[in-house]
Every structure is written in C-alpha cells, then in structure tokens.
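Researcher: Let's do a round of design. I'm pasting the structure tokens now; please hold your answer until I've finished.
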C-alpha cells in the first residue's frame, strides 16, 4: 500500500521528506507561539429559517460573515449533539479495527471513494508533498450513487449512523443555500436564480472522514496543506477535543476554536464563483498534534460533472460587474488544482 499514515504514527519517527513542506507560503507555526484564535462569526440557524423579528438581521450577519470570513460556526442547526457524538464514535471505532478489516474499504489508487490517501495525478506523484492524514470518502447523495462496497460494515452501526447524519445534513444544506440566496436578495422561488439548483440538478454530496495521527515532530508536515474547498458548500464536524484547523484571513493564520455541538460552514470555490465573489471561499489548513490523534467529518456538496459554473445573473449588474467567466466543473481538474496549489477561482477570474 502507498504511504500508510498508520504505520508512520506507530513508529513515532519524524515524517519522511515527502511529507515536509518547505514552501514559504506554508510557514509552519512555532509551537511555542500559539496563533490567535479566529473570532469566527456564530450564526443561529434557527433564526435564519424561522420567520421572526430577528431573521433579517441574522441573514445580514450571514452575508457579512461569508463575504469577509467565508466561514461561520452554525448553532441551532437541528442535528442533535448525541448524533454528532455517534458520528465521531463510529469513525473512531472504524480506525481502531484491525488493519485487514479497514482494508475492506480501501480506496483504489486512482479512485475517489474509500479509505486511504488522497488521489494524486500521475504527473504530480514524484513532486507532490503528501498530507499526514488518511480519509474515508463516501458519496451519500443521491442514494443511487452510493458505492456501498466502501461503506464500512464494522462497527455494525456505521452505515445507519452515516445515513442518519447525512440525511439531516442534506436538509441543513438545502436550507442554508436558500438562506444564502435570501441574504443576497435573490428571488427565492425563481429556481434559475438559486444556488440550490446547481447542486440539486445532477450534483452530489459526499462525506469525508479525516484522520490525522499524532506526529511527535511535525517539523514541516501538515495534516492538510493550505487549500480552499473545490465544493459548493462544506460542513465540518470537528474533533470534540483536539484543535488543528486554521484559517487564513488578511494574510494571517488563525486557529479555529472548538465549539461544542456547532458545525463549521465553509464557502466552496464554486459558490464563490456563483455568488460573483459576494461570498469568499476561505483558505485553510490542518496542523498536527504531537501527542494526540485528531479527526473531523466533512459533508460537502459538488456540482454535476461537466456542469458550467458561473455567476448567477441576479448578482451581476452595472454596479457589480461580472468577476468570473464560466468554468466547467471536472473532478480531475479539481485534483489537479489541489496538488498544484492553485484554485479554480483564480482560473475563472476575469
Ligand atoms: O479537518 C479539518 O478540520 C478540515 C478538513 C478539511 O479542510 C477538508 O476535508 O477539506
Ligand atoms: Fe478543506
């Protein structure tokens, strides 16, 4: 098997050279100087969606947060804390299984789904610096796109828990995209003008279970290198105890705090384009902890393969000129952007 982060975590040695970032845009923090905490805006989802006196103000807070931070903490999102704990638990139990059990869900080298290291295009194999992490990726929606052979059978309730969690997140996802459209004064009932259409028509939603082993001497290794998400929208369930996510804001790295029972929402690159730059897709990375493993669970939505993505008509005007040209969504292009450290938003910018 290609680089097994499990073995690396067991030996406790310094990561080999292919995990070390030396690029000056990726300075690794000196652990003795903690980075500042991000004052990430907290959005009360209930207030966004339940018509009340405070809804307009909450929509404006959402719009303002997504245009400056590109990420928010969402509270009152309707997903019970106990279900979030179960999602974390089934992944921990999966990681604790004997290797041969985990290998039943192993990703193929050039595949997307299953457990293992991220896909790297052949041209980048010798040069790409690897992440010190492993992921289990599973498409959750639409249901007929689920590849059940990659869905763990152990622990016995893994599938049921993911099914439950992903269906709750689907509701949250759709409602969030509607609220985002309302926050920009887009016509809600005009299907052509909503963000939702881009995902609902042929798009997909998938889960990413991220695992970061402890790394006693990270020395330039990262759990995930700086990137923005090539998604429409990303929902992140953080580890309940171990911090690690950092966000770049105004050219400074900030730690994202752990807020019990909240979900972190990131604007994805394709939403940035569709919003004509009104919302920003934030650059973020994951640092390693010397003693403790960390995990996170992401639910993210993607446009349909081959779909043309462009700013919504309602967001282009004389005062707000079009900022992005049309770009065709392609998974392989996304992999290429990722490993070459570029972004679709840069490519699309006029
Ligand atoms: O583990 C995290 O906190 C972030 C994960 C992430 O950025 C990703 O999966 O794209
Ligand atoms: Fe990410």
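Researcher: That's everything. Go ahead.
Model: Designed sequence:
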């Amino acid at each position: 098997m290609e680089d097994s982060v499990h073995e690396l975590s067991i030996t406790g040695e310094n990561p080999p050279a292919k995990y070390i970032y030396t690029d000056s845009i990726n300075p690794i923090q000196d652990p003795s100087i903690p980075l500042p905490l991000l004052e990430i805006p907290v959005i009360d989802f209930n207030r966004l969606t339940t018509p009340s006196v405070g809804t307009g103000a909450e929509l404006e807070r959402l719009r303002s947060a997504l245009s400056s931070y590109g990420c928010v903490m969402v509270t009152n999102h309707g997903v019970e804390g106990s279900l979030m704990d179960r999602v974390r638990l089934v992944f921990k139990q999966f990681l604790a299984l004997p290797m041969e059990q985990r290998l039943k869900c192993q990703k193929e080298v050039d595949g997307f789904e299953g457990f293992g290291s991220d896909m790297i295009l052949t041209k980048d194999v010798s040069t790409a610096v690897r992440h010190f992490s492993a992921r289990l990726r599973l498409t959750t929606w639409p249901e007929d796109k689920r590849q059940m052979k990659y869905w763990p059978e152990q622990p016995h309730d893994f599938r049921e828990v993911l099914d439950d969690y992903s269906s709750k997140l689907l509701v949250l996802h759709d409602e969030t995209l509607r609220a985002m459209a309302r926050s920009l004064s887009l016509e809600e009932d005009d299907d052509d003008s909503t963000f939702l259409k881009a995902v609902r028509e042929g798009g997909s939603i998938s889960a990413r279970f991220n695992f970061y082993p402890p790394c006693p001497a990270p020395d330039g290794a990262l759990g995930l290198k700086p990137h923005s998400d090539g998604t429409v929208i990303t929902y992140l369930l953080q580890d309940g105890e171990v911090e690690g996510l950092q966000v770049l804001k105004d050219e400074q790295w900030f730690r994202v705090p752990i807020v019990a029972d909240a979900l972190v929402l990131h604007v994805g690159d394709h939403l940035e384009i569709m919003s004509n730059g009104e919302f920003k897709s934030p650059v973020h990375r994951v640092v390693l902890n010397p003693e403790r493993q960390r995990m996170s669970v992401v639910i993210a939505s993607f446009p349909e393969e081959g779909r043309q993505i462009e700013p919504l008509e309602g967001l282009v005007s004389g005062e707000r000129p079009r900022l992005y040209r049309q770009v065709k969504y392609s998974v392989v292009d996304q992999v290429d952007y990722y490993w070459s450290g570029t972004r679709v938003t840069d490519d699309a910018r006029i």
